[in-house]
Write a structure and sequence with these properties.
Blueprint (H helix, E strand, L loop, with lengths): L9 E3 L9 E5 L11 H15 L4 E6 L4 H12 L3 E7 L8 H8 L3 E5 L1 H4 L5 H10 L3 E4 L6 H7 L12 E6 L3 H9 L5 E6 L6 H8 L9 E3 L13 H14 L8 H13 L8 E5 L5 H10 L6
Parallel strand pairs: 2-10, 3-4, 3-6, 4-5, 7-8, 7-10, 8-9
Antiparallel strand pairs: 1-2
Helix pairs in contact: 1-2, 1-6, 2-3, 6-7
């Protein structure tokens, strides 16, 4: 059964650093209250695959604060599928908001050691999971598979084709790959990795053997602020100020880093004057609650 998606709003962003440029934001974070942003798109074809093949469960992977885990649990509940989350690390004595929500959606959580978690993509480990859950579809961490790429292609539509640049956060590279494949040949796709991992292109090609990095697609490293889930006081200040001025929530793991990168690129004239830039808000704000609890920081004052 094909899943239909509502269209997300595209809104202008008025910010001092953007003088001479047109900066808009595609609010994919508002598509669904719990399955927001690129998580929904990457799960789209995976859920359809499970339904088409009459499978009754989804097995997937993530950390204790994973947006993907929360989204998968919610999506499975919505479509009447069982969900199993393989969680990196020991089971906490108290569930954080992400894991508590996943369990409320009916997801069964299986905690494994960080050492075992490194085998999450190993064919032998995957085969053992298939034997344990024979009627399941196994989705890699972050929805990083060919079906995820196919779903991410739907993030662009007739309204987005007019922009000179489309900018997105890069975790696994799945969303970036989908945007590159779906974009018009004249449109430039900019991916901003939020971690130190520099083999994203090879990871994408492992998912999609046909993928080619077009001349108009660029991966810009150097904006991760120290690595995955690393943050600085300047980032937190930016997120707080951005929310105060625009009422838009950014998260400190993905979208906050990318919007801060866009500001830096604007200030250094990366985008030519008169350019139009579209930032894809890929959601992830659900994880901000756990971030605030861990670090005792209020992001949205």
């Amino acid at each position: 059964m094909e899943i239909t998606l509502p269209k997300s709003d595209i809104q202008p962003i008025d910010w001092p650093a953007y003088d001479g440029l047109t900066i808009h934001m595609k609010r994919d974070d508002l598509i669904h209250p719990k399955i927001s942003g690129n998580k929904l798109f990457k799960l789209l074809r995976n859920i359809e695959f499970a339904e088409e093949n009459k499978l009754d469960s989804i097995v997937t992977f993530g950390g204790a604060y994973s947006n993907h885990i929360a989204a998968t649990a919610s999506m499975c509940q919505k479509h009447g599928l069982n969900s199993i989350g393989i969680i990196r690390g020991e089971a906490p004595s108290n569930r954080n908001p992400t894991l508590a929500y996943a369990e409320c959606c009916g997801m069964k959580l299986k905690f494994i050691s960080r050492e075992e978690y490194k085998s999450k993509n190993d064919p032998n480990y995957i085969n053992s999971l298939k034997q344990q859950y024979p009627s399941s579809h196994i989705i890699p961490e972050g929805g990083a598979n060919l079906l995820g790429i196919d779903g991410a292609m739907k993030m662009l539509d007739s309204r987005t084709s007019k922009y000179d640049y489309v900018v997105c956060a890069m975790g696994t590279g799945t969303t970036f790959a989908g945007l590159v494949k779906a974009a018009p040949s004249v449109q430039k796709i900019i991916g901003i990795p939020i971690h130190k991992h520099e083999n994203l292109l090879s990871d994408i090609i492992k998912m999609d053997k046909t993928f080619e990095l077009s001349p108009n697609a660029t991966i810009l490293n150097g904006f991760h602020l120290g690595g995955y889930a690393k943050w600085t006081p300047d980032l937190i200040n930016f997120i707080q100020t951005f929310y105060l001025k625009t009422s838009i929530k950014l998260d400190p793991i993905y979208t906050g880093k990318v919007m801060l990168a866009i500001e830096s690129l604007c200030k250094t004239s990366f985008f030519p004057k008169g350019s139009s830039v579209l930032f894809i808000h890929s959601g992830g704000v659900q994880g901000a609650v756990g971030f605030e609890e861990r670090f005792r920081i209020t992001l949205y004052k």
